[in-house]
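Hi R.,

Here's the chain you asked about this morning:
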Amino acid sequence: MAACTICHVEKDLGSFPLRVKSSAGKKKGEPTAICRECTDQRKESRKKRAGKRKAKTDEAVEDGLGKDDDDEVDLGEIAVAEFLDAVKESDSPVKVRAQVDIITIGAAGATPRECTNKLATALGDVQLLYWTFENQGVRIQKETKVFSYSCAQSESREHKPKVQKGGKGRDSDQMDRFPCDGWLHLMVSDKSDIIGVVLKHSEEHVGYLDVHLPEKWKQYIQEHARAQTPGQASSA
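And the predicted structure, written out as tokens:
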């Protein structure tokens, strides 16, 4: 008999699925700490959350690629540098549509996703924002792929913190969120160096603070993980 760590009900070991791989001191083939019923409920819950998030993303994409707003600015075909300058000088709310020539930033052999990531990063640099990849779709009639990004600080894209049943949430600073409804849709064709851009960001807010660990510190941790405690590594 064992107690499930989610529902806390004691059940026979046959009610617990077996581990498919070894991890955290537990071996492959041993019963997990969560019963099969709770495991299935968690899977179903994750599936529903993912479905709701995708539906919101699809709705935002459909809305973003639709008819022009009355106050939307269409820059037409434009070079990357000029496009970035135009966005930088734009007042909030930003609603911009353009056909951007990326030949100066599109490396030979780069995939469509790599090209759109570069443009999204360049936009984030001039706007002091971070554009998070959300979804990839296809516009069959126009033979283009659509890569959609959301503003990392948009309150509509915030994930709820994970807290286990009966547990306490972590006491940590959360990123400030804003009702900016920021979306960036980039349309790419294999036949052209032009990326179609639809950019919407309705409210100016404080800049994005990059909290990613620099590569040099990732390497340091890998090299000293066995010889130092976390406290020693953080004070190095």
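The helical segments are 36-64, 80-89, 112-127, 215-224, 230-234.

Let me know if you need anything else.
M.
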